[in-house]
């Protein structure tokens, strides 16, 4: 099992620190800001080996240049389509990153929709999926189409159920409040809510989220399921295919 730590950055973002076999050397996913990363490295006496970038938005990449000025030799992995300054290795779908200090390769999944070049990193059972899937939610469709976002969500849905979702934001509680308006009788959703409330009150992250649970409580993974579909119809949805339902749901969330 890899050791992965959450580093809170900006207001509600997480950068993720993946500790290697030599646990004093780490890899950072999505450094939205440099200072908290530098503090984490200094406080724990760690060395930074590499940076993984899920997509180009500033709240996921804002710390890159400053980290590069401190560590000019690090490898930075990201999608060619997202064109992020500082990238040393452009990566794409089905490629694998092998880092000597990790016990397993990192697999690359293309998950366009939020941005066109959005990628996810799968390391053992840990999925770093940026702003595509959140716990009990889904990212906004900014650059891609609903069809692309749907395919990306399906790709994540089809990963093994023990996959852990390490997403980019602490949005879980707000997402649960929205989900409960559609799925009020879902006892697993209510259970997750009390669990998350406890974590947040202790200033702990609600993440990672277990895919198996998400499949039962995240409305964006359940657009084809009866309670969600009938809730959407009650709100005016008249479409007849899963992509239209996903888009309608995303638009409802935008207005919530
Ligand atoms: Zn984003
Ligand atoms: Fe973001």
Keyword list:
alpha/beta, 256 residues, binds zinc ion, six-stranded mixed sheet, Metallo-beta-lactamase, Chain A, binds fe (iii) ion
Topology:
Blueprint: E1 3-9, E2 13-19, E3 25-29, H1 35-44, E4 47-52, H2 58-61, H3 64-70, E5 75-79, E6 89-91, E7 96-97, E8 106-110, E9 119-123, E10 126-130, E11 133-134, E12 137-138, H4 146-157, E13 164-167, H5 172-182, H6 187-201, E14 209-210, H7 211-217, H8 226-234, H9 242-255
Parallel strand pairs: 3-4, 4-5, 5-6, 10-13
Antiparallel strand pairs: 1-2, 2-3, 7-8, 8-9, 9-10, 11-12, 13-14
Helix pairs in contact: 5-6
Fe (iii) ion is lined by residues 57, 59-60, 131, 168-169.
Description of the molecule:
This protein has a single domain (3-255), classed as Metallo-beta-lactamase, Chain A (4-Layer Sandwich), CATH 3.60.15.10. Helix content is 35%, strand content 23%. The chain contains 9 helices and 14 strands. The strands form 3 sheets. It has a 6-stranded mixed beta sheet, with helices on one face. Strands 7-8-9-10-13-14 form a 6-stranded mixed beta sheet. A two-stranded antiparallel sheet has the order 11-12. A hairpin with a 2-residue loop joins strand 11 and strand 12. The mean pLDDT is 97. Zinc ion (ZN) is lined by residues 55, 57, 60, 114, 131. Zinc ion is lined by residues 55, 57, 60, 114, 131.
């Amino acid at each position: 099992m890899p050791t992965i730590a959450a580093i809170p950055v900006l207001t509600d973002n997480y950068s993720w620190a993946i500790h290697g076999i030599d646990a004093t050397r780490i890899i950072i996913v999505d450094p939205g800001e440099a200072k908290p990363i530098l503090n984490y490295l200094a406080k724990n006496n760690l060395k930074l080996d590499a940076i993984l970038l899920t997509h180009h938005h500033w709240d996921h990449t804002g710390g890159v240049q400053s980290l590069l000025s401190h560590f000019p030799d690090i490898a930075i992995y990201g999608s060619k389509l997202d064109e992020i300054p500082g990238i040393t290795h452009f990566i794409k779908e089905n490629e694998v990153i092998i880092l000597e200090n990790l016990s397993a390769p990192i697999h690359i999944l293309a998950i366009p929709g939020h941005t066109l070049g959005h990628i996810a990193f799968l390391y053992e059972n840990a999925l770093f999926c940026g702003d595509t899937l959140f716990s009990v939610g889904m990212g906004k469709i900014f650059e891609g189409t609903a069809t692309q976002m749907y395919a990306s969500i399906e790709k994540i849905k089809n990963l093994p159920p023990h996959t852990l979702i390490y997403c980019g934001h602490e949005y879980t509680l707000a997402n649960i409040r929205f989900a409960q308006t559609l799925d009020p009788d879902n006892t697993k959703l209510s259970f997750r809510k009390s669990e998350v409330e406890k974590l947040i009150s202790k200033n702990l992250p609600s993440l990672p989220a277990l895919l198996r649970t998400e499949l039962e409580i995240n409305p964006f993974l359940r657009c084809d399921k009866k309670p969600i579909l009938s809730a959407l119809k009650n709100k005016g949805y008249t479409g007849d295919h899963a992509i239209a339902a996903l888009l309608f749901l995303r638009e409802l969330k935008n207005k919530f």
